[in-house]
Write a structure and sequence with these properties.
Number of strands: 12
CATH class: Alpha Beta
Structural class: alpha/beta
CATH architecture: 3-Layer(aba) Sandwich
Number of domains: 1
Shape: globular
Order of helices and strands: HEHEHHHEHHEEHHEHHEHEEEEEH
Strand content: 5-15%
Radius of gyration: 23 Å
Distance between the termini: 35 Å
Largest sheet: 8 strands, mixed
Oligomer: single chain
Number of helices: 13
Length: 467
């Protein structure tokens, strides 16, 4: 496929905005439905039904059986199972998910009044794919941080295109149609590791904006801040510089120019009070205020990212990626991990409550139009013991490292509370469906209505979440 370039005088579209901001910033036999040639263009029954995706990485390698596949032996889940979980929950709920200190005291009472509940009370709102694997054709798990994270970002250990670049590329026709009607739609955003937004050649123009640690609270560019003569002078200077370059370099200069133009076009959005998530405003946007969101989520880094994600959705962003926590606990996991779940549980509870409160412009709530997905670069193992010698856990090529039991929640999930696939309690041998990260990505792209035919040609979207 040939490289696409933008002619110098082509009118600005959101595609060029994405380009401009980007410049700144196991076994096949157990999953035959995944590896069937010729099904790459298949569509799920949820094709195009999803409007927003919140894709969350539990950073460092998350020990999934302790939370989302707790019906296993003690060596895989040394913290035990929760009791009194919500009726209709099929998957094993870990004891650590029952921690709900965020509902204590006056602040907790305010959160409860806003609809927040212990995660064990809303476990029937999540479905879990028990066995998600980086590479179902390999002999063992990829327990290497570098290559495991590359697979999570791109689908391959040596991938060059990030999942969120694929989303922006896949929605290019929708964006062009909106631009033709003078409608501005924000692209997918990355609020974490930039690998999720990499892209070269024709995909480079669709790399998502990457915000690392800062939002729009201090954004201060105003449309029309400079006189026309100054803008004209800068534009002519840039054009002369671009036109003197070799053809192979002109695209890079144009990308820089697009960044400036895009900033002007989008300054009204970026200057909006809604995106200034730390302003404590009581103004209702989509039926919820920034002050209420701060009360619900808190003010940790991940909490701010989640609050910003909900506001980016308001302006048409189809997807937001963020990192949460640090779970690479080779030592001190036994004592330290429960406290980390206090933050995670509050965020899960706040997401469920806020999405159901928020009113979507297409009708219903944001919950009806949004999918929340938690993943990681791999799971963790203690090699047959509850913990390693340092009271932590590790990662290698075994099943405990391999199977990521990924939870999904949102109104598009047809059977909330369902467990899809299973593992044997004693050795985590898979029973039922096994999915690759690529098939998960392709399914999410399909549900967003993305053009995904050229990505992961050996992997098809699946219907297990939607039927």
């Amino acid at each position: 496929m040939g490289r696409r370039t933008r002619k110098p005088n082509t009118p600005l579209t959101r595609r060029t905005f994405v380009r401009g901001l980007a410049a700144g910033g196991a076994i096949a036999s157990v999953a035959p439905h995944i590896w069937i040639p010729g099904r790459a263009r298949a569509q799920s029954s949820a094709h195009g039904a999803l409007r927003h995706l919140l894709y969350i990485r539990l950073g460092g390698g998350f020990r999934f059986p302790i939370a989302f596949n707790a019906d296993v032996a003690e060596e895989f889940n040394p913290f035990g199972k929760a009791s009194g979980v919500a009726e209709g929950t099929e998957w094993g709920v870990g004891q650590l998910l029952s921690r709900s200190g965020f509902l204590d005291g006056e602040d907790g009472a305010a959160r409860a009044a806003l609809g927040m509940q212990p995660v064990t009370d809303i476990s029937n709102q999540m479905s879990v794919l028990t066995c998600v694997d980086h590479e179902p054709t390999s002999a063992g798990a990829d327990g290497n941080h570098g290559s495991g994270l590359e697979r999570y970002y791109t689908g391959y250990a040596d991938g060059t295109t990030g999942f969120f670049t694929m989303i922006n590329y896949g929605l290019r026709e929708r964006v062009a149609a909106a631009a033709a009607e003078d409608k501005l739609l924000l692209p997918a955003f990355v609020l974490g590791g930039s690998g999720m937004g990499r892209g070269i050649d024709e995909y480079a123009a669709h790399r998502p904006p990457v915000l690392s640690g800062r939002g729009f609270d201090d954004f201060g560019v105003e449309k029309g801040a400079f006189p026309d003569w100054a803008n004209d002078m800068v534009a002519r200077t840039d054009e002369r510089y671009r036109d003197r370059q070799h053809e192979a370099l002109k695209l890079h200069v144009q990308t820089y120019m697009d960044t400036r133009e895009a900033t002007k076009e989008y300054s009204d959005i970026f200057n909006s009070d809604a995106l200034k998530i730390r302003n404590g405003s009581d103004e209702q946007v989509d039926g919820i205020s920034n002050a209420e969101l701060e009360s619900m989520f808190g003010d940790t880094r991940a909490a701010r990212d989640m609050r910003l994600a909900l506001r980016l959705f308001h302006y048409g962003s189809p997807a937001v990626y963020l990192d949460q926590g640090g779970y690479d606990m080779h030592s001190g996991e036994e004592a330290g991990l429960p406290g980390q779940f206090d933050d995670l549980n509050q965020l899960i509870s706040a997401l469920e409550a806020s999405l159901k409160r928020m009113e979507h412009p297409e009708g219903g709530s944001y919950w009806d139009h949004t999918m929340v997905v938690f993943g990681s670069e791999f799971s963790r193992t203690a090699r047959g013991r509850r913990f390693n010698s340092a009271r932590g856990s590790d990662h290698n090529s075994d099943r405990a490292t391999r199977w990521m039991s990924m939870p999904f929640m949102g109104g598009l999930v047809a059977r909330p509370g369902a467990q899809i696939g299973s593992t044997a309690s004693g050795d985590l041998a898979p029973g039922g469906a096994v999915f690759s990260y690529r098939s998960v990505m392709k399914t999410l792209m399909d549900s967003l209505g993305c053009d995904h035919a050229e990505f992961f040609p050996a992997d098809a979207p699946f219907d297990d979440l939607f039927t």
